[in-house]
Amino acid sequence: MNRDSASRKKRLLNIIVKEYITTATPVASETVQRKYKLGVSPATVRNDMAELEKEGYIARPHTSAGCIPLDKAYRHYVENLSRNLALPTSEQEEIKSMFDEAAEELDRWLKMAAALMSRLVGSAALVTLPRAKRSRFKHMELVSLHDLMALMVLVLNEASIKQHLINFSKQITQDKLSSVANKLNSKYTGLTIAEIEALEIELTAEEKMVSDAVIGIMATEAETEFPEPYFDGLRLMLSQPEFTKQERMLRILELMEANDWLRAVMKRHAGDTAVKVVIGEESGDKSLKDLSLVFSSYGVPRRIGGTIGVIGPTRMDYGRAISTVGYMSEILSYLLGEVYTED
């Protein structure tokens, strides 16, 4: 294949993807010929489309129908988007002013971010609460509930509060519980789980039970890499033509409710702070073949962070989604950096 032919096919593929993103209907060679000046005959356009079909970039729902892009075409399209994608300046300024006027409340910031992403991309958006890269012990209280039972209230850094019931083998008073809490607070404050486990201090049987409970909770917290996400805009996503059939709509709703797949996808593609795009079956799950996920981390590097993104049909406007998620990541990272102080 000569260079001119390869370049023309690349342009044709991008045209097909953009047309399908816009119209959600199969793209016919006549449409391409009429709307775009490729400088070749209709027969050449048909031949090029036939070659793209053989190469696995496009498919025809019916023999006489136009073509639709496959995951391979969307991946080619995404990889060839400009590396300097950005929202229009006017939209950036509008978003920034909205956050400037909002109260300094993390929950409000995150819900606003999800709502804005959903509106700007026209699909579902997700955001997770930020969490520390490494949990550190901040403070603990022990409250007597019964002669043999106490409630432990454990505060980790970033105000993460955990509650746990401890059953002792013998009666223990509130005064004794307060003494245990005071001792462990003096030894553990500011430490990670690894640093706590490395300490060599004498503990009574009661202190050892409480210490083991603290270590167990911190170990569980460390394993929870992706907290429960908050969703916005599911209605917008389900209004897309791909999901109008009841069967598909119900399947999407089930996926949103059981979001283990989301954690698995984000974990598999976790890494740097760049915006990541997972298209259709790239997720490794055939049940997600209709969906694409565009997401990014946000936060303060090596200290605290969360995940934001948009979910939509594979026929999503990837340029719009990437620029929106990228800018929202910048905004949330800046806001979190302004209020974050290491304990």
Structure description:
The protein is an alpha+beta fold and 343 residues long. The chain folds into three domains: 3-79, Winged helix-like DNA-binding domain superfamily/Winged helix DNA-binding domain (Arc Repressor Mutant, subunit A), CATH 1.10.10; 89-128 and 226-339, GAF domain (Beta-Lactamase, 2-Layer Sandwich), CATH 3.30.450.40; 137-223, Enolase-like, domain 1 (2-Layer Sandwich). Helix content is 49%, strand content 18%. The chain has 13 helices and eleven strands. Strands 3, 4, 8, 9, 10 and 11 form a six-stranded antiparallel beta sheet that branches. A three-stranded antiparallel beta sheet has the order 5-6-7, covered by helices on one side. A two-stranded antiparallel sheet has the order 1-2. β1 (58-59) and β2 (68-69) form a beta hairpin. The radius of gyration is 26 Å and the shape is elongated.
